[in-house]
Specification:
Largest sheet: 5 strands, mixed
Strand order of the largest sheet: 1-2-3-4-5
Distance between the termini: 36 Å
Number of strands: 5
CATH class: Alpha Beta
Helix content: 25-40%
Structural class: alpha+beta
CATH architecture: 3-Layer(aba) Sandwich
Number of domains: 1
């Protein structure tokens, strides 16, 4: 495992911890299917959140441009597949977590409802 992969796992673990503190149950991590991938799927009450995690080693990232249109489509495709496979009828939303991992400390910028299916082109 290379250094960037280790940083990515550190970021995902920090977001899982953040979600659990918010009383979300982690349903699945790194869900992959043909056409897309989702880093974290979590549920709280009747809401399922599909979370894209971006981990960076500096704060030079512009949070407003973290997920482009093509990436949104891939996330939405994977979310639809997950919902179909699991016969899930919950309300869902797409969140983005930007993790700044600096000196093994994680600072999370969490954006609820970061985009909608309409924005993703569906």
């Amino acid at each position: 495992m290379n250094h960037n992969q280790q940083i990515g796992i550190l970021g995902e673990n920090a977001v899982v911890h953040h979600l659990e503190q918010q009383h979300f149950a982690i349903v699945e991590r790194n869900f992959r299917c043909r056409g897309g991938e989702i880093d974290i799927i979590a549920r709280k009450d009747d809401i399922v959140v599909f979370v894209e995690v971006k981990t960076r080693k500096s704060r030079s990232l512009d949070a407003t441009q973290v997920i482009n249109h093509r990436k949104q489509q891939k996330i939405y495709t994977a979310a639809r597949r997950f919902m179909q496979q699991n016969h899930t009828e919950y309300t869902f939303q797409f969140d983005v977590a930007i993790v700044y991992a600096i000196n093994n400390q994680c600072d999370i910028e969490y954006i609820s409802n970061a985009f909608t299916p309409n924005e993703a082109g569906y």
